[in-house]
From TrEMBL:
The organism's taxonomic lineage, starting at the top: Bacteria, Bacillati, Actinomycetota, Actinomycetes, Micrococcales
Keywords: DNA-binding, Transcription, Transcription regulation
Domain HTH lacI-type: 8-62
Organism: Myceligenerans pegani
A Pfam family the protein falls into: Peripla_BP_3
Name of the featured protein: LacI family DNA-binding transcriptional regulator
Amino acid sequence: MSTRNRRPTIRDVAAAAGVSRGTVSRVLNGGKLVSPEARAAVEAAIASTGYVANQHARSLATSRSNSIAFLLTEPQHLLFEDPNFSVLLRGVAEELSGREIPLLLMVAGTPSEWRQITRYVAAGHVDGVLLISSHRDNPVLADLLAHDVPVVACGVPLGYEGRVGYVAADDKLGAVTMARHLLERGRTRIAMITGPLDTSGGTLRLEGYREALGDLYDETLVATGDYSRESGRLAMAELLRRRPDLDAVFVASDLMAAGALATLQAEGRRVPDDVAVGGFDDSGVAAAMHPALTTMRQPFGRISSEMVRLLLEVMEGEEPAGIMLPTSLVKRDST
């Protein structure tokens, strides 16, 4: 059928430009990984074919909902307690707003909520899912893939690295950097409060800490939290009981570091004189602490934009890809 008798499609633009549909999609979605020559060819093809990205018509023609889900697989209270989630949510919403794609917020922290969300998404109410805080044994990801739902994860999806696209901060190298910073400050009994060990952030930050400490690593200096403030408070108390001689602690999130700091102050430990404290994230909590927290900055704005870009590409048929972004050390008063 001639394009004179129907609305031009991305396929028509790709054929006219001599590029793949994925390349056309990246140009339309503002992607940066397109050569100047390919971009110029696509733009010329759009002009020559008369292609217009009419989202309503596209939805009717493809049976798509023209919406995307932001799915947090954590207890509901963490959406409001952990500032990282709201920062990611805001960044994703801004990226999609520019593309006129609605964003649905979904929180599923219990097995019954997992089942409800899976049924809703599998019914076609959203076109793709941005999966936030994936745990190794959580069945949601397997269920979404079984229903051929396009998914991109925030953080490495443990067990699904080759099947699911993801955007992650370099957790291991970030942990190496923080642990080395504490060593350079003259600390030798450096404890760690890890995140959940069924998440990539939990395991990779622990690996980086162990690598940096080398022969100084001691498992009695390690406790585990769940990224909540309360878990940081309790883990710090456990570490002080177990190793009252510790002189530094690397905490795998700023929110847990706030809890750890409260315990140290309650126990009369001066920070950083007696115990240096380092965090991870550089959320708003870090600068507001007293003393202000030295931490590893995650590039949340870039993480949000890259997640959206990768998901839109997967929705257009591209293969899933993984992106690892660098973190940076932010020195403040706690070390």
